[in-house]
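Supplementary notes for students who missed Thursday's class. We covered one full example, reproduced here. Read the sequence, then the structure, then the short commentary at the end.
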Amino acid sequence: MTQHMIEAGKPATKLKSEALQVLFERGLVHQCTDLEALDARLANGPVTLYSGFDATAASLHAGHLLPLMAMRWLQNLGHWPIVVLGGGTSLVGDPSFKSEGRPLLDQMEIDRNLTGIFRTVSRLFDLSPEAGGRILNNAAWLTEVRFLEFLRLYGQHFTVNRMVTFDAVRSRLEAQSPMTVLEFCYMMLQAVDFLELSKRTDCELQIGGSDQWGNIVNGVELGRKVDGRQLFGLTVPLLTTAAGHKMGKTAAGAIWLDPDRMSPFAFWQFWRNTADADLPRFLRLFTELPIREVERLSALEGEERNEAKKVLATQVTTIVHGAEAARHALEQGDALFSGSWEQAEPTHRLESRRLADGLGLLELISELGFAASNSEARRLVEGGGVRLNGSVIQDPRRTLAIGDLAAGERLSLAIGRRKKALVAFQ
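Structure (token representation):
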């Protein structure tokens, strides 16, 4: 099997398929198992493809957007995406590049997480029969196979020698970190996913993050060994900033895609605060704007660059939360960042009793997601970076009272120039 690592995001040969041309143009290709053969197959007609997501949390996060965006582009170009929810694989847990085993989730928690993830992915794809988009749960086939049957059907096609060569496993072994048989078998389960999907839906392509390369290759090889089918694997790049940091988290945690975990405005504000150096790449990756418009926005400078960031934020929020939520977030942002916060709607709501109980400023900063802890919030306050209702506050012992509320029983909180919130107490 030919395997391709894509150098500098460019294919070595001229591409035939519009699908791969677009994915490369947007920066959404990192590795591919057989680039030339996949290119020919995509140029020959619609391809069924999938990406899987385990139910390790009640929401997907910004890091998951890369494979989801690749799938959206392929659906827009006439191909048929399947989102596979890991109701079965979540019972085991993916060990890829983890220093220790994941905690095992019970069935109730997995089901609750699956509900949240389903809510997100169902907004991202056209699930009508004519568009070919589907959402499946791998519990449908993984939980039906008995252990001895599983070993007889699939165990003969995997060798320990081969499996320990994959980076995800080798890194654990080299660090002398224990790896259980349960975790070791995970890559077999994901490979079976691909095989089952190829049989049930004629799926030919799996898309995943770069940390899934070993698991994807196993699935491609299992399809060849069992059915003699040519399957394909493609990974998207690791999501990092221009500074080299893993992107997708704030001081308070992940950038969640579910509005119950992160409000559409907080989501919008994260993208509005994109660093200048990251703007061109993020416009390519996370919007569906034409490349010429991406290039025009990327070339803006000074205050106009902030307008380009607003376009980025609004486009991503539209994709994830819908046009109405994005419009509302933009209006909120314009009001807050222009200083006209009295005209804006609250970004957060808290109970009035919190003030009577003595809500500390540090506690509020942390709760709003502007700091990961009270100690970090203290440093922000002492550094003069915190403004309450427009006034700088430098006393970390400051508590909030009814007298701090302006018209409408609200207060504004700003951290530096980029992070702002309008809190209502009811």
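Commentary. The chain has three domains: 4-236, 263-338, 348-425. The first strand starts at residue 4 and ends at 5. If anything here is unclear, bring it to office hours.
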